[in-house]
Amino acid sequence: MPGSPSRCFALVPCAGIGERAQAGGPKQYAVVAGRSVVAHTLAALTAVRGLEAMLVVLAPEDRQFERHAPAFQGARAWVARCGGATRAASVGHGLDELRRRGAGEHDWVLVHDAARCLLRPAWVESLMAACRDDEVGGLLALPLADTLKESIAGPAGVRVAHTVPRAGKWLAQTPQMFRLGLLRRALEAAGTGVSDESSAVEALHLAPRLVRGDIENLKLTWPADFALAERLLETRR
Ligand code: CTP
Ligand code: MG
């Protein structure tokens, strides 16, 4: 609605298969510290102040979500089985669903990976505070701490091709916060290959704001990540 203040919606892509995690099924339903990965993620998002509603995007054939996230229900907790073949497609379909449910082109959307289950509400609130008046939007990210190597694979194994200067390099996390209309245009133009929302927006020659995140906001990706997440979650109790 023109003139009305922008609202913030969360969009949680949860339609992946978790190939790298080898968890015996979609990693978002693996149980870590007593409940599923996605249940942890949604509990954190539910505690964020200032979110209008939350949409979880599932694979069309998903039969597990309701069992693994039983507490996720209510007028502002939405589920849509409209996931696509790539993360970008899942997010794009989710934006259409948000539009159908009343979100405006000018409203903010915070896209957050279901697999990033160590999220703390304060991190999301700091992103919202930093981006709410921004022209473009932004993302949580972490300045690179380690020395970065570019590799080359050959008959003698994987070796260092060269060292990439780490100054000015950041690791992108989520949430990533953009206005719905801009993000939809960006994803349509970028196609399905982008691995985050920011890349799509950058391709429009816009510069998203980098907001310092936290090293604990890791994305469960590899088999060993689950035990690490479990340890971190246990020590938070
Ligand atoms: N995702 C999605 N739709 C896809 C692919 C990914 O909604 N087609 C979601 C995942 O469920 C996850 C988030 O995007 O919450 C981040 O993606 P990633 O960590 O790559 O998860 P997967 O694609 O499931 O894992 P992998 O790449 O190892 O298969
Ligand atoms: Mg993936």
Give a verbal description of the structure.
The chain is of the alpha/beta class and 237 residues long. The chain has a single domain, classed as Spore Coat Polysaccharide Biosynthesis Protein SpsA, Chain A (Alpha-Beta Complex). It is built from seven helices and eleven strands. It has helices spanning 37-46, 65-68, 87-100, 121-131, 180-190, 197-202, 225-236, and strands spanning 8-14, 31-32, 35-36, 53-58, 77-80, 108-111, 137-143, 148-154, 157-164, 170-179, 209-212. The model has no long low-confidence stretch (mean pLDDT 96). Cytidine-5'-triphosphate binds at residues 13-21, 28, 57, 83-87, 90, 113-115, 219, 221.
Give short descriptive properties of this protein.
Spore Coat Polysaccharide Biosynthesis Protein SpsA, Chain A; 7 helices; 7-stranded mixed sheet; alpha/beta; 237 residues; binds cytidine-5'-triphosphate; binds magnesium ion; two-stranded antiparallel sheet
Care to give the gist of this entry?
By secondary structure, the chain is α/β, with parallel strands linked by helices. Helices cover 29% and strands 26% of the residues.
Question: Strand order, biggest sheet?
Answer: 5-4-1-6-10-7-11
Mean pLDDT equals: 96
Broad CATH class = Alpha Beta
Strand content: 25-35%
What general outline do the C-alpha atoms trace? globular
Biggest beta sheet attributes: 7 strands, mixed
Helix share, percent: 25-40%
Rg (CA only): 18 Å
According to CATH, the homologous superfamily is: Spore Coat Polysaccharide Biosynthesis Protein SpsA, Chain A
* Number of beta strands: 11
The rounded distance between the terminal residues' Cα atoms is 42 Å
At the fold tier of CATH, the topology name is Spore Coat Polysaccharide Biosynthesis Protein SpsA, Chain A
